[in-house]
Amino acid sequence: MKVPPEPGRREARLPAAEPHDAYASLRLPEYRSFLAAMAAVFVATQVQSAVLGWQVYALTRDPLSLGLVGLSEPSPSSRSRSSADGPRTAPTAVSSRSWGWRR
Q1: How confident is the model over 32-88, as pLDDT tens digits?
Q2: What is the pLDDT of residue 20?
Q3: 61 torsion bin: left (phi>0), alpha (psi -120 to 50), beta (else)
Q4: Which helix (H) or strand (E) segment is 100 a member of?
Q5: Taking Cα atoms as reference points, which of 4, 9, 102 lies closest to residue 57?
Q6: Does this model's pTM top 0.90?
Q7: Averaged over 94-100, what is the pLDDT?
Q8: CA–CA distance, 27 with 36 (Å, rounded to integer)
Q9: Cβ(52)–Cβ(73) below 8 Å
Q10: SS3 sequence, 56-94?
């Protein structure tokens, strides 16, 4: 139910809205390049994930190792930390023999 305005007061009207163009950003060549680069990074990340599992299984032939690698992939790594998180530590070297991998 519409309430009538008070006497002596005009009803406020909003200006007519311009039609929205959903594809306006795609007309910018810089944005199209950015989108293509983001798509390439997404595909490369997926391929890297598949190859990592394939390589671990080819080296170990151990389903547990493959599962542990798959489980550790989504966890944050030391490379994703910002400089505000404090000093970085040197990476720890692990030989393939300590894990029981065959060559």
Answers
A1: 999 999 999 999 999 999 999 999 999 999 999 999 988 888 776 655 555 555 555
A2: 86
A3: left
A4: none
A5: 102
A6: no
A7: 52
A8: 14
A9: yes
A10: HHHHHCCHHHHHHHHHHCCCCCHHHCCHHHCCCCCCCCC
